[in-house]
Amino acid sequence: MLRPFIVTWWSGRNVEDMPADIKAVYDAAKFPRMPINIALVVLDEHGKHLSASRPIVKPGTMRFDSESMGKDFKRQLDEMLGDLDIPKATTATQPKLTLPEVCGSGVRIYLTAEDNRLRHYRTPIVEAVPVSESIAKALRYPTQARTLSAKDLMPWLEQIYPAAIMDGKGGFRSIEGPLTLKPAGSSATHRYAIVEGELLFELDNTGRTNYRGDLALVIKYPLATNEMESLRGVCDFTVPKGTEKIRIQAAIETTPE
């Protein structure tokens, strides 16, 4: 339905956070000065305001069924675009889904949740993050056990965010906890090490939601160098969300260069 259009979006906590061009669109739509979860605005090819809507999504009455909620959202979108001369969309081939990557050395972080009332994360969130020089240095092969801090892996850990927490800015006040990096044996071609520890996460939301997570990583090194060749691991934690406690797991793996 939206294929004939150029679609873009902006997300923020309040009107004061809006860039000037976004605020101009918002003002032209004459939305009330109140919190809005979703607002839709249609502009023509010259940027002129054509129509606007605040679609109502009722997860409670629809028992959090994504298919029913999606159909109802489309119905409201049809009503919003009803008077517009919409060009006929051509049939497009099904896009091929690919995993995100980074240029050079990086990791992918997969975030999934167990089944819960709100049915969060039915499709995993996948983030691609570089292996920075500081992380590579922190994870060099240890000849003996040594202590790392959450700060050493912060560019990765700050991606382990429960996206359904909606009253924050999408970040953390703090991520803390000691981690232990220690040797873990060898094979004919490689040496291994493990990272283990418990982390304390505190979100930046108004409720200061906090939770603990267990992190475990296995790192592989060539025999001839102390530089990491590959890594796999998991972080397992439970996030309070209203009356629920949602178990979430993050899987971490290096991407091929």
Poorly predicted parts: none
Which H/E pattern describes the elements?
HEEHEEHEHEEEEEE
What composes the largest sheet? 9 strands, antiparallel
Q: Please tally the β strands and state the result.
A: 11
* Approximate strand percentage: 35-45%
Which range best describes the helical content: under 10%, 10-25%, 25-40%, 40-55%, 55-70% or over 70%? Answer: 10-25%
Task: Report how far the terminal alpha carbons are from each other.
Answer: 38 Å
Number of helices: 4
User: What number is the mean pLDDT?
Assistant: 86
Radius of gyration equals: 23 Å
Shape estimate = elongated
- Supply the helix-strand structural class: mainly beta
- How many domains make up the 3D coordinates? 2
Describe the structure.
With 257 residues, the chain is mainly beta. The chain folds into two domains: 1-95, no CATH class; 106-254, no CATH class. It is 13% helix and 35% strand. The protein has helices at 20-28, 66-80, 133-138, 154-157, and strands at 40-43, 49-53, 106-113, 125-130, 146-149, 172-176, 178-186, 190-203, 210-222, 230-241, 244-254. The strands form two sheets. Strands 3, 4, 5, 6, 7, 8, 9, 10 and 11 form a nine-stranded antiparallel beta sheet that branches. Strands 1-2 form a two-stranded antiparallel sheet. The relative contact order is 0.12. The mean pLDDT is 86.
